[in-house]
Amino acid sequence: MTSGPPWLTAVRQSHRVSTLLERLAATGSFSIAGIAVELGVSRATIRRDLAALEEQGLLTRTHGGAVARGGSVELPVRYRADRDRGQKQAIARAAMRALPSGPCVVAVNGGTTTHEVARLLASRSQLTVVTNALDIAMELALQPRVRLVVTGGRARNRSCELVGPWAERTLGSINIDTAFIGVDGISARNGVSTHDATEARINAIMIERSRRVVVVADGTKIGRDLLAHVAPASAVDELITDSSAAAPELAAMRAQDITVTIADLPAH
Question: Alpha-carbon Rg of the chain, whole angstroms?
Answer without folding.
Answer: 19
